[in-house]
Structures are given as structure tokens and as C-alpha cells.
Write a sequence for this structure.
């Protein structure tokens, strides 16, 4: 997977805004900790850091897939 830096930045901003609307256990701090851990694992096990970071950021959308799908569609990405 390869995205432009601009699209990756938009996805990150979108996800962090979403986390700010969640409870204290799933807030922006939770997102940043999850990304940090995911990147650590990817570096040690081998992995696409961009994909891993975005996956970690988007993991909390499991209950709101329609919100994420609508946003990605606006970026011109399919599900």
C-alpha cells in the first residue's frame, strides 16, 4: 500500500479528531500509544510502517465503519 503523504496526513487528522470524541479510555492518547506499539512491532518483525500506522489509527472504527467508509470515499479510496 502506498499513499501520498498528504492522504496519510488527512487520514491521521481524521482519526485523531474521532478519538477526541471518545471516552477517556479510547481518546487521542490511546491512539498514539497504539501507533507507538504497532510501529515498534513492525520495525522488529518487518512491516510497512505507513500501513501499520494507519491501521493502528483506524482500529477503533470497528463500531463506526460507515463513518470511515464515507471519509475514505471522499479521498477517492474504495473500501
Amino acid at each position: 500500500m502506498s499513499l501520498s503523504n498528504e492522504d496519510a496526513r488527512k487520514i491521521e487528522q481524521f482519526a485523531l479528531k474521532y478519538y477526541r470524541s471518545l471516552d477517556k479510555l479510547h481518546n487521542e492518547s490511546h491512539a498514539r500509544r497504539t501507533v507507538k506499539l504497532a510501529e515498534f512491532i513492525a520495525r522488529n518483525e518487518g512491516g510497512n510502517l505507513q500501513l501499520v500506522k494507519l491501521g493502528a489509527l483506524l482500529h477503533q472504527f470497528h463500531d463506526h465503519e460507515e463513518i470511515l467508509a464515507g471519509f475514505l470515499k471522499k479521498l477517492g479510496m474504495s473500501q
User: Anything to note?
Assistant: The chain has a mean pLDDT of 92. The radius of gyration is 12 Å.
